[in-house]
Amino acid sequence: MATSSPCCPPSAVDDPRAAAVSVRVTGDPLDAGAAIAAVTRPHAGGIGVFVGTTRDSFNGREVTRLEYEAFTPLAERALARIGQAAARRYGLAAVAVWHRVGVVGVGEASVVIATSATHRREAMEAAAAVIAAVKARAPIWKQEWYAGDDRAWKENCECAHALPSVPAAALRGEGDHIDVAAWLGEQSPADVARVGSAAGSAHRPVEPAAAPAAAAPAAAAAPGLSEA
């Protein structure tokens, strides 16, 4: 059963202005306004937001809902490290990385990313980078349900085999180590957006029996945001 972890410690507790990282993996509805409030800071003049919602069709088929599953301890740890790495790379004031599990109806939010920074460019670029990393690294999977109660597991197509431009150094993950910074360091914001767009349109269904095991740390082979 997934739980909610509302906040993870900032990466540099000695600095009162160090970025705070808020992480949630929860079955409750996500509130984008609450995420914005969580990252609002007096010294941050820009906030970047991404909200992923369930759309009503896929490849001409009517979608009725999505259903997400997560191995919560690893998911929370991955989201926290992604947020911390983005905060370091983009100089963020705060970042919220919230993901819903369970049934998510059409039009409802499954993921909310909010980032704040001194200037809007860093905030917006960070939000794009964080969602790309979440889709690539977080141990969270989904089933897509269609009209008539047919369903299909959806593979995460932002994994290593779908990112030929990712350097080998960025794909070396050991244990629960998250390393996407090497990749982000070599990609422009346009490249990050292109990868996310291409992967999002390339999802292919697999049989339910082929769904990933809940505790599969094999996701460490895909790009993630680094602790370094």
Automatic annotation (TrEMBL):
Database matches in InterPro entries: MoaE_sf, Mopterin_biosynth_MoaE
SUPFAM superfamilies found in the cross-reference section: Molybdopterin synthase subunit MoaE (SSF54690)
GO biological process: Mo-molybdopterin cofactor biosynthetic process
Highest taxon above the source species: Eukaryota
PANTHER family the record matches: MOLYBDOPTERIN SYNTHASE RELATED
Protein name per UniProt: Molybdopterin synthase catalytic subunit
Species per Swiss-Prot/TrEMBL record: Cafeteria roenbergensis
